[in-house]
Design a protein that fits this description.
With 294 residues, the chain is of the alpha+beta class. The chain has helices at 50-54, 68-74, 76-83, 102-112, 191-202, 212-221, 241-250, 282-293; strands at 5-6, 9-10, 24-27, 33-34, 40-42, 62-67, 90-95, 119-122, 126-129, 139-144, 158-162, 168-173, 180-188, 228-231, 234-237. The strands form 5 sheets. A 7-stranded mixed β-sheet has the order 7-6-3-8-13-10-14.
Amino acid sequence: QRPLERDGVYLGKIFVVDRVLRCLAWPRDRRLVRDEHGDHNVKHDQYSGKAEQERPVPVKPVVIVLVQPHCQSYNADKILHQALGGNKKIELCILDDFTGSASETIYKSIIKSKITGSITIKDSDNYVEYPNSGTSENSVVGLRVTHDMNIDNIQSKSFIRVNENNILTDIIEKKIVSDIICLGVYSFKKATSFLVAYEALSSDNTNGELYISHIVSYLLKNQKESFKLRECTCYKDWGTLSEWKKEMHRNATYFIDFDGVLIKNSGIYGDLNWNNNKEMLTENCRAIKQAQEH
């Protein structure tokens, strides 16, 4: 994506859409997708593979999910259209109202957008980089937490258990059972698997919010599906206001006067002037360097 800003703070190539999003969904494999004229008559099996690389299929691979109240109150849909510059590879799925959970959001979005084949779901309140295998497979992106990492509110994460082959044996919500946290990126080989699991769990759910981790756990245990752990290479979390403020601070831009701040104040005339002034204000330079490093 093109560089975006938030509250005047440059964030580089980070895709940020505040809290009007519950999730992002990338359908990688649609049996029926729109062609360049909008007709549902282009068929393909996967994005990956030699045939697709040689002959790109005109699809809309990214679905951003919004709710109608945010569109009406904040022009969320119009803002996204403007910010994304009419990118034809991105479509908006606008739900009628708020949902009770992220899993319900995904369930309704899959049905409304008629998504089939493989799908990847991502939380909207973090930034994650991870190696993409290029194949359609069940997987969850996680991070192995070490003692030198500063993970805020870690007890609110879901935790992943894996075997010696990095295959998930379970994923448990808000209970520290391993050193691997889930980063909110889930890939399903078939969108229908998500629908089946959601319908089974929601019909007998008396324990509160139904998380996506519950969907994965159900497919592991009840449908005997296999999920691979993908370990992230970069992770930034801004799921709470305090975390977002920390991210803004890390990416803050400082406007600093050169004359009088970095070097001793001088003018165009006099013994000490702009042409010969080399007297650095070392304490100021040291303070600025420390601010930059932190």
